């Protein structure tokens, strides 16, 4: 008799709907951002993140291409949040004090 070996999915989805690479505590979106921001190949990503296998990197990219619209909108939302945080910190009390110094 032939026993079927159960394979573990390379991608897990957590309770918040976030996709993770199984067993390495790395979000799929982190790999995707390396590709989008730097144009890295899977081999370059493996060099930069040796804890990820090429198979895991390819699985993350495959997941991205299967769910591109959803992940692209998530990336855009995160980008806007970062911009808003930067804008808020630009108006920090220290910055106001420095601007007030210039007036006097």
Summarize this, please?
By secondary structure, the chain is mainly α.
How would you describe this structure to a colleague?
It is a single chain. With 104 residues, this protein is mostly helical. 62% of the residues lie in helices and 8% in strands. Helix 1 (28-38) crosses helix 3 (54-66). The model has no long low-confidence stretch (mean pLDDT 88).
Classify the beta-strand content into a percent band: 5-15%
Strand line-up in the sheet with most strands: 1-2-3
By helix and strand content, what is the structural category? mainly alpha
- Encode the helix/strand succession as letters: EEEHHHHH
Judging from the principal axes of the Cα atoms, what is the shape?
A: elongated
Task: Describe this protein with a few key phrases.
104 residues, 5 helices, mainly alpha
What topology does this entry show?
Elements lengths: L10 E3 L5 E3 L4 E2 H11 L3 H7 L5 H13 L1 H23 L2 H11 L1
